[in-house]
């Protein structure tokens, strides 16, 4: 009897950070496709529900051939029920950091996997993060660096912002973009051969 072919992994993300994170656990996608979906939160939608919906919709939005395994992720930053979008300018970075200064916020790292049979599995891993009380100069310097543009809530924990965060609880890799422990477990359950 012929052996079943090894499934191909499709990463439904254009994020270089997610590719780098997967490489840390020895996973290299066979194909990368950026999903095109509406990322607007629904009226009254809670951040955790939104993050999971985004990950699932991203996974479902890419082309699946045969028994491909699809992996998608979403990183949603929220203070209470308020969802912070990606910052589109240095002014938005400064505005978001001003709102997060000295406060705890939650980063919901969601991932969704479509397995060889087409079954969708998803997980959400929440982490708590707190910025120190930021001075106007610290906010202005970080905003001017350009690092926070295109990032949820206007910061990247793996960059210069690391020097402004005085406390964190949860999954560091989740805050960066993909919680590796949970992602590996989901991929293994979906049939991706991992040691």
From TrEMBL:
Cell compartment(s), UniProt: Cytoplasm
Cofactor(s) this protein requires: a divalent metal cation
Family under the similarity heading: Belongs to the Maf family. YhdE subfamily.
Main location: cytoplasm
GO cellular-component term (any): cytoplasm
Function statement: Nucleoside triphosphate pyrophosphatase that hydrolyzes dTTP and UTP. May have a dual role in cell division arrest and in preventing the incorporation of modified nucleotides into cellular nucleic acids.
Residues at the site labelled Important for substrate specificity: 17, 75, 158
Active site residues according to the UniProt entry: 74 (proton acceptor)
Lineage: Bacteria, Pseudomonadati, Pseudomonadota, Alphaproteobacteria, Sphingomonadales
Native species: Parerythrobacter jejuensis
Pfam families on file: Maf (PF02545)
Keyword annotations from UniProtKB, A to Z: Cytoplasm, Hydrolase, Nucleotide metabolism
Protein name in UniProt: dTTP/UTP pyrophosphatase
GO biological process, one term: nucleotide metabolic process
The UniProt record lists the keyword Transcription: no
Enzyme Commission number(s): 3.6.1.9
Catalyses which reaction(s): UTP + H2O = UMP + diphosphate + H(+); dTTP + H2O = dTMP + diphosphate + H(+)
């Amino acid at each position: 009897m012929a052996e079943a072919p090894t499934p191909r992994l499709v990463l439904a993300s254009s994020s270089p950070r997610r590719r780098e994170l997967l490489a840390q656990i020895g996973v290299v996608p066979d194909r990368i496709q950026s999903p095109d979906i509406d990322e607007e939160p629904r009226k009254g939608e809670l951040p955790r529900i939104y993050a999971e919906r985004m990950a699932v919709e991203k996974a479902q939005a890419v082309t699946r051939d045969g028994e491909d395994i699809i992996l998608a992720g979403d990183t949603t930053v929220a203070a209470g029920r308020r969802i912070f979008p990606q910052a589109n300018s240095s002014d938005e970075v400064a505005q978001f950091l001003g709102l997060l200064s000295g406060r705890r916020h939650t980063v919901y790292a969601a991932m969704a996997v479509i397995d060889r049979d087409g079954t969708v599995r998803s997980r959400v891993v929440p982490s708590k993060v707190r910025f120190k009380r930021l001075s106007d100069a610290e906010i202005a310097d970080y905003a001017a660096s350009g690092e926070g543009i295109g990032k949820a809530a206007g910061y990247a924990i793996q960059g210069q912002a690391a020097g402004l965060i005085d406390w964190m609880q949860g999954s560091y890799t989740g805050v960066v973009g993909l919680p590796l422990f949970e992602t590996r477990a989901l991929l293994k359950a979906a049939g991706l051969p991992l040691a």
